[in-house]
Each structure stands twice: as structure tokens, then as C-alpha cells.
Amino acid sequence: MKFIKMHGLGNDYVYINGFGETVDDPAKLAIEVADRHFGIGGDGLIMLLPPNAGVDADARMRMFNADGSEAEMCGNGIRCVCKLAYDDGVTRAKPMRIETGNGVLTLDYQLDDAGKIAQVAVDMGKPILEAAKIPAAIPGVDSTATIVNQPSPEDACPGEQTAKLMGKAGVHGEITCVSMGNPHVMIYCDDVAAVPLEAIGPILENHPWFPRRINVHFVQVHSEGEVTMRTWERGSGVTLACGTGACAVCVAGVLTGRSGRKVLAHLPGGDLLLEWRADEHVMMTGPATEVFRGEWAG
User: Fold this and answer.
1) Which domains does the chain have, with CATH numbers?
2) Catalytic site residue from 74, 82, 189, 250
3) pTM, rounded to two decimals
4) CA 111 to each of CA 48, 68, 85, 94: distance values in angstroms, whole numbers, following the listed order
5) Can you tell me the distance from the alpha carbon of 217 to that of 185, in angstroms, rounded to the nearest whole number?
6) 181-215 pLDDT, tens digit each
7) Does the annotation mark 74 as catalytic?
8) Which end of the chain, N or C, is more open, meaning fewer C-beta atoms within 10 Å of its C-beta?
């Protein structure tokens, strides 16, 4: 089976072009190929596929985390799907419409000197803010409420050492939740580099408040238009970037009054430009990079 290794700001996946390859069990394959010691290595598996019957789209993506669980969307991944579809001649539509678990998204792109896609702008649609639709089930919070500056769960920071590290990082004691088709929780702090992400991430991801688990982001605000973030991704752990998460951070900044509608987000793997427009759609612009191609013999 032929594969393509690609990344968006270091958020790396193994890609399969389903217009020419068939995968019987993508969840099982995701676990195998994502292994960084015995597989290809990556944050999971993403498939480029024909759109479902009756759907007005040029292509479709399915995304599987490193643990085999299927997610609705991946912001960095969809940019790479756009690049793969264009560079491999599946479609040259401009703008390109890609079907996802969060509906059909529209993407525009820029080509490099070799005539291949280098930069992609994605209309990520409107954020979902209603608690039940994120989903988040917080005791005492109405299912139709917006979760902004909500006190964080008391059991999310176990152990004296972890608590000390959280204090050192200047972590604020509130959470804000946003869905971009997949669920995100934002926590603000004074020093994002000092957050014990590996300790807190899995606890919040699997907390009872979040029935479908959640992506966890710690955010440091530099100015109205600039933030730095670190991510614990649902099903994958620490990743170098999360596109949908950056979109959620943009929205959360406006909701909490901490940042503006246009922000430059610094992620460990690089930068993304975000804008929560007046029409409530979130625009995300960033690179898509092919690393290598190969054949999986597993």
C-alpha cells in the first residue's frame, strides 16, 4: 500500500490516497502506522477519499488518531488533504470543497514555484458554543449555556508537585470550551512553557465533564493579536500543532476578552493566522508540507 507522510506545522500524519488505494480497517492501520518505533510514525492516519453520494464536494477526508479513534476534523490535516488532492491530480478545483465529519469545508490555496500547493486558507465554519453540542456536561451548567471562564474541575490537578508546577506557570483557574466540529477546552496561563502538559492533558481529556473526550490547550496571551499555545490532542497526546485548536483559541480569546478577532498563534511547530470574521466563520491560514512517500508492507 502506497502512503505519503505529510505535516502541517509538525502535526504529522500518514496519508493514504483512497482514489487509488483500499484500506479495510483504517482504525487498526492508524495504530500500526502511527507507532514511531515500529511503524512509519505520526499523530495518526488521514485518508483522501471520494465524497459520499449526494454530497457536493471535490473530495472527502477521514481522520484517525494514533489510538485508532476516529475524529471529526483536523485543521492541519485538511490543509494537507487539499495539497495531496491537488498535487496528485485528484482535483484542481479552486476553491476546493472537502467533505469532513464537520460538513463540507471550503479551501483556497497558493502554489509554490514548482506548481505545488504551499499555503492553504480554510474556511472552518462557525464555532459551536452550546454546552450540549460541544459536548460538555458540567454539573450546574445549563446544556444550552456557553462555557466561558468556567471554574475548572477540582480533580484536574492531582498531586502536590503538579499543583506547584501549575502555580509556577501562572495557570488561571477557569476553562472555556469551544467546538470546531471537534471539542476543545482552553486554559489561560502566564507561562505556557512551564505547564506540566503531560500530567494535566490526559486527565482533562478523559474527564467526566467531556463525554466524547476533549482536546486540551494552554494559552499565553502576548497582545490582542498574538498568542502562544500548547496542545494535548485527544487520542494522540502532545502534538506540535492543532489547527482546529488554534481556531478554538481564536474564538475563546474573543469570548473571554483576552484577544481580538485576528490573531497570530505560535504553536511548537510554527505559526497559524486566524480570524473570527463578522459572519462568525473562522478562517485559518497555514502551510502544508510533504515529507516523503513510501510503501507500507505491514
Assistant:
1) 2-122+285-293 (3.10.310.10), 131-282 (3.10.310.10)
2) 74
3) 0.92
4) 20, 33, 13, 12
5) 6
6) 999 999 999 999 999 999 999 999 999 999 999 99
7) yes
8) C
